[in-house]
C-alpha cells in the first residue's frame, strides 16, 4: 500500500514529453533483434540494462539509436505503441502526446507508411478499447542538416491528419534552435503546433531562441532556465509550459542526484512545470516512478502532485471540452 502513489495514479494526468522509440524495453529489443537478425553488442536483456549507464545526453543517444535499429516492420511499431498506451491506462495518464523520430527510420530505408500505420493502428485500438486519448509529435533530429528536416516535413504530408505537432530533439549542444528557424516557420504555416527541446544540456539562450525564433508554445526540459533570472520571469509571466523529466535529468547527469533537482523551486517560483518520463526504460522509470522519486527524494507533496497534474492538462493540446472535464475532476473551477 502506497498512499502517495495510489493518489497520483488516481489523478487524471497528461504526459507531454515521451519518445515512443524510447519506450523500447530491453526484452522487446532482444526479441526484435532475434526476429530480424540484427546484430547487437548484447547477448541478454540484462546486458542491455547494464549498458544503460550514461554520462551525458550523447552517450544515451548512441544506445537509443542502436536500440531503434530493431524496429523494422509495421507490427514492431504497433507493439511498441500499444505497450506504452497500456501503461498510460494503468498509470492514470488520460492523455498523452508522444514524440517520434521519422529520420531514425527513413535513414534506414523504412518508409513513413510503415511506422505511421503501426502507430495509428495502436492509437485507434487504445481509443476504442479504453478511451485512451493520444496525439503524435513529429521530431526533427537536430544533429542532421536543415535540408533533412525539410525532406521529413514533405514526406509527412500524406500523414498530416495523424500528426498534431512538430518538435526538435537529439544532440542539443552545437545545434542551436536557429538552425531550424525556416523549417519551423514552414511547419507553423502548415498548421502544426510547435514545441522543441531546449535547455536540457544547452544554455538558457537556446530556450530564448526556441521561443523567439522557432515560436514554440512549449519547451521540452527547459530546466537550465533556472540559470537566468530574467528568462525565468518571462516564462512565469507567459506561463510557458516546461515538460520536465526528472529521472532523465539525473540519469543524463544534468543534475548530480534527485536531491539537486530544481523542480520544487521551479514550482514555487510559479513556472508552469509538468512531470514526464522521456525514455522510461532507459532512465529507470515511467511517469509514476518519476513522481515516486520526487516524493521520496525531494518531499514532493500530494498537493504538488495535484498542481502538476493540473499543469499537464492545461498545457496539453487536447480539445477544450475534454480539458475542462479533466480539470473539473481535479477540482479546478472552470473560469
Ligand atoms: N531523444 C530522446 N530522448 C531525448 C532527450 N532527452 N533529449 C534529446 N533528444 C532525445
Ligand atoms: Zn526528450
Report on the structure:
The protein has 335 residues and is an alpha/beta fold. It has one domain (2-315): TIM Barrel, CATH 3.20.20. The protein contains 17 helices and 8 strands. Strands 1-2-3-4-5-6-7-8 form an 8-stranded parallel sheet. Strand 6 (218-221), helix 11 and strand 7 form a beta-alpha-beta unit. Helix 1 (3-10) crosses helix 15. The two termini are 36 Å apart. The structure holds adenine and zinc ion. Adenine (ADE) is lined by residues 19, 22, 57, 64, 169-170, 197, 200, 248, 278-279.
Topology:
Layout: H1 3-10, E1 13-19, H2 26-36, H3 45-51, H4 57-68, H5 74-91, E2 93-100, H6 102-106, H7 112-130, E3 133-141, H8 146-155, E4 165-169, H9 181-189, E5 193-198, H10 204-212, E6 218-221, H11 229-238, E7 241-244, H12 246-251, H13 263-268, E8 272-275, H14 280-283, H15 287-298, H16 302-315, H17 320-329
Parallel strand pairs: 1-2, 2-3, 3-4, 4-5, 5-6, 6-7, 7-8
Helix pairs in contact: 1-15, 2-3, 5-7
The structure holds adenine and zinc ion.
Which tags fit this structure?
335 residues, alpha/beta, TIM Barrel, 17 helices, binds adenine
Biggest β-sheet: strands ordered side by side in the sheet: 1-2-3-4-5-6-7-8
Sheet of most strands: 8 strands, parallel
Order of helix and strand elements from N to C terminus: HEHHHHEHHEHEHEHEHEHHEHHHH
Low-confidence stretches: none
The tally of domains stands at 1
What is the average per-residue confidence, as pLDDT, rounded to a whole number? 97
CATH superfamily: Metal-dependent hydrolases
- Give the overall form: globular
CATH architecture: Alpha-Beta Barrel
Q: What value does the Rg take, in angstroms?
A: 19 Å
Percent in strands: 5-15%
What is the C-level CATH assignment?
Answer: Alpha Beta
How much helix, percentage-wise, in residues? 40-55%
Work out the helix count.
17
> Which ligands does the model contain, each kind named once?
adenine, zinc ion
Roughly how many Å apart are the termini? 36 Å
At CATH level 3, the topology is: TIM Barrel
Give the tally of β-strands.
Answer: 8
The structure class reads alpha/beta
Amino acid at each position: 500500500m502506497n498512499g502517495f502513489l495510489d493518489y497520483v495514479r488516481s489523478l487524471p494526468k497528461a504526459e507531454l514529453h515521451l519518445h515512443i522509440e524510447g519506450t523500447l524495453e530491453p526484452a522487446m529489443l532482444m526479441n526484435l533483434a532475434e526476429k530480424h537478425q540484427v546484430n547487437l553488442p548484447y547477448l541478454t536483456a540484462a546486458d542491455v540494462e547494464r549498458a544503460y549507464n550514461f554520462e551525458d545526453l550523447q552517450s544515451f543517444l548512441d544506445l537509443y539509436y542502436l536500440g531503434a535499429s530493431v524496429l523494422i516492420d509495421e507490427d514492431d511499431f504497433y507493439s511498441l505503441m500499444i505497450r506504452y498506451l497500456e501503461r498510460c491506462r494503468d498509470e492514470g495518464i488520460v492523455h498523452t502526446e508522444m514524440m517520434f523520430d521519422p529520420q531514425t527510420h527513413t535513414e534506414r530505408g523504412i518508409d513513413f507508411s510503415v511506422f505511421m500505420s503501426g502507430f495509428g493502428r495502436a492509437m485507434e485500438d487504445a481509443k476504442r478499447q479504453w478511451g485512451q486519448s493520444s496525439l503524435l509529435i513529429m521530431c526533427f533530429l537536430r544533429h542532421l542538416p536543415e535540408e533533412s528536416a525539410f525532406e521529413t516535413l514533405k514526406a509527412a504530408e500524406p500523414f498530416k491528419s495523424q500528426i498534431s505537432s512538430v518538435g526538435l530533439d537529439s544532440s542539443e549542444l552545437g545545434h542551436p534552435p536557429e538552425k531550424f528557424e525556416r523549417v519551423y516557420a514552414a511547419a507553423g504555416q502548415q498548421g502544426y503546433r510547435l514545441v522543441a527541446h531546449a535547455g536540457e544540456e544547452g544554455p538558457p539562450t537556446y530556450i530564448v531562441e526556441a521561443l523567439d525564433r522557432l515560436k514554440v508554445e512549449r519547451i521540452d526540459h527547459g530546466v537550465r532556465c533556472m540559470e537566468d533570472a530574467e528568462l525565468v520571469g518571462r516564462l512565469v509571466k507567459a506561463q510557458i509550459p516546461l515538460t520536465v523529466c526528472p529521472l532523465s535529468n539525473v540519469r543524463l547527469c544534468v543534475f548530480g542526484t534527485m536531491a539537486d533537482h530544481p523542480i520544487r523551486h521551479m514550482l514555487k517560483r510559479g513556472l508552469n512545470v509538468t512531470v514526464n518520463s522521456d525514455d522510461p526504460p532507459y532512465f529507470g522509470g515511467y511517469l509514476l516512478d518519476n513522481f515516486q522519486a520526487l516524493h521520496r527524494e525531494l518531499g514532493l507533496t500530494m498537493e504538488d502532485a495535484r498542481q502538476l497534474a493540473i499543469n499537464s492538462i492545461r498545457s496539453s493540446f487536447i480539445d477544450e471540452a475534454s480539458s475542462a472535464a479533466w480539470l473539473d475532476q481535479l477540482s479546478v473551477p472552470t473560469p
